[in-house]
Amino acid sequence: MYVSGVNNQSYAAATQKGPVNQLGKDAFLKLLITQLRYQDPLRPMEDREFIAQLAQFSTLELMQNLSSDFTSIKAVSLIGKTVYAEKRAEDSAGVLPIRGKVESVSLVNGKVSLRVNGYDIALEDVKEIYSDEKATEGDE
User: Fold this and answer.
1) Which of 23, 27, 33, 75 could form a disulfide with 112 if both were Cys (CB 3.0 to 4.6 A apart)?
2) Exposed, middle or buried by CB within 10 Å (0-12, 13-18, 19+), for 85?
3) What pLDDT, on the 0 to 100 scale, is given for residue 100?
4) 118-138 exposure pattern, b = at least 16 Cβ within 10 A, e = fewer
5) Considering only CA atoms, which of 82, 80, 87 is closest in space to residue 125?
6) Which class does domain 80-139 fall in?
7) 36 or 127: whose pLDDT is higher?
8) Which keywords does this chain's UniProt record carry (predicted)?
């Protein structure tokens, strides 16, 4: 039995992943404060509900910190490995291909930066990571 769609959006377009709007900790706090400000004084929020919301907030903050820590650990594990990156050229619209060993890792403006062949490269600009064997094969 064939069932037509409710809207004109195709299956492929409906299943494509786009940017996900996530509720950050600041938005969560604003929601909680608004809820407390406009609650009915004759029926205040129950203690259990309030404690559950605070626990959710704590969990959200811990997950964000864990994600940040994991990214830093991942970057530190790249020291000494050969990587290929495409850095956006500052003077033009093109990209500068960079291949070499990661010399150091630093945190610049809250983002992880790798030092490769004298260039500072954002972690998200790394396209390939080579094992030692593959890196030496490519250099020959």
Assistant:
1) 75
2) buried
3) 93
4) eeebebebbeeebeeeebeee
5) 87
6) mainly beta
7) 127
8) Bacterial flagellum biogenesis, Cell projection, Cilium, Flagellum
